[in-house]
Structure formats: C-alpha cells, structure tokens
Amino acid sequence: VAGGNTYGGGMYNHGFSSPTVANCTFTENTAYSSGGGMYNYSSSPTVSNCTFSGNTADGGGGMFNEFKSTPTVDHCTFSGNRAADGAGMLNSGTSPTVSNCMFSGNIAFYHGGGISSFDASPTICNCTFSCNTAFDYGLWPFIAGDLAKLVAASLALPAGWAIVERFRGAL
Asked: Which residues of 133-167 are buried (b: 16+ CB within 10 A; e: fewer)?
C-alpha cells in the first residue's frame, strides 16, 4: 500500500469498523495530519504480520490510533517511520494491544520514536524496541504517556537513556 492523504496515507479505518489486515506492507505513505501508514478512528482492526516502513505523518508515522479505537497489532514491524509525535505508533484516547512487534529506526521530532501514548492505555507485550530516536524532552526514544502496561519487552537503549521519561502511571 502506498499513497498520501490527510488521514491514513495507506489506510483509514473509521466509525466502528473492524477490518482484519494480514500479511501487508505499508511503505512510503504520507498523511499530512495523522497516520502515515494507517489511521484508526473509533475502530478496532486486527493487524497481523504487517510491515510499516518509511511512512510519514505529523502524528503516528506508522500508525495512529485515536478516539476509542482498540486495535490488536501482532507480529508487525515498524521501521524507518517519521513523525512529529509517535514515529512508530501514536495512541490518543485508545486501548491498543501490541504484541510480538519490532520497533526499529523510527524518528520523532518531539516524543515517542517507537511509541507515544497520551490519555491512552496500551498493552505492549513481547515487543522489541531498537534504535528509535526522539529529539525533544531530553530524548524520549521509547514510549511516552499514560498507563502503559509493558510485559517482557526487549529494549536496546544506549547507556544513560531512560526507558520511560515523564511517565504518569504504573508499569
């Protein structure tokens, strides 16, 4: 999937939709606002064995989950995506479940090179975060936000980097 839109450069899921997306590649898509690869608004897609690479957006370079979305994302790769916030994935007002995924080489101008979450309750299980970058707030390379649950995540961070900075909630 390759393309460009205001929301969801590659795919836009809206209004309580629940598509199943498997074995797809979202590459070099641009969303001028949100969700370079995929934008989910009040929807609950099941996304498995997909690759999100080289996508760009203001929020959520690879994927943006917003407003009561509850996506399930499993065995996906998020690499080389760029955004102001949440280069790999941005969550706002959502409860995604992200498992067995790889976040690598994503670059955010502000926060969340890998994942950024605000007013969200993501569950992140058995994921690997490697070489993600964020430039603001003293480097927020991994995950920013509220109420994230991390289970057996593999983190490759340079010495002296915090896993979670300015985090409000419990792990």
From this structure: bbeeeebbbbbbbebbebeebebeeeeeeeeebeb
Closest CA to 27 of 12, 38, 40: 38
φ/ψ (deg, to 5) at 117: -135, 130
3-state helix, strand, coil in the chain (%, to 5): 0, 50, 50
Mean pLDDT by 10 residues, the chain (171 residues): 74 94 96 95 97 97 96 98 94 94 92 88 89 65 45 47 40 39
The phi-psi region of residue 84 (left if phi > 0; otherwise alpha if psi is between -120 and 50; otherwise beta) is: alpha
What are the tokens at 91? 């969550």
Chain-centroid distance, C-alpha 107: 11
The pLDDT of residue 2 is 54
Residue 155's alpha-carbon distances to 2, 56, 70, 109, 129, in angstroms, are 30, 24, 24, 20, 5
